[in-house]
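Sequence in, structure out. Go.
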Amino acid sequence: MKILFWGIMSFLSSFMIHLIVWRIHVPEKQTKVLLCICFGTLLIILSGLWNNLIFSSRFGSLTPTNVLEYFQIFILTTSLILSYIITYSAIEADSPSLLIVREVADAGPDGLKEEKLTAELNNDFLIEPRLRDLIVDKMVYVYGDKYRLTSKGFLIAKIFVLSRKLLNAPKGG
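Output:
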């Protein structure tokens, strides 16, 4: 019970800090800042528990008693954090499929003409913001009139290619 309690409390604490920070100012490198917030919060809570400075008198039987319990809290919270990071990247930028569904839904029962959809969902709306994000995250750079992968971008691309091969997935989205 204490592992579940502290794992969820650690994640929820970092989530609340994330919401507060984003209300004040959305950072340029959102995923990096989010990882720092989440793992920083986890480390602060674990060190506070370890030193029994903050929580021991208030939470008595819920305080972890051995290294294995601390490790389990770390694993649970890390799993929650990484799951959230993956989900957040989908929330951060609208996917083309979700944009299409939203546009069709907004059109109502009369439906949406293909011409209107293609006019609204063009390269400026779908591709340009993603290219800017890749440049900001230093995964690509512009050389002349071409986009080129950085070493970081090359590594990420290799990971995606390998994962798709392992899953026997076709090319594309």
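Check: The first strand starts at residue 140 and ends at 143. Residues 99-166 form one domain.
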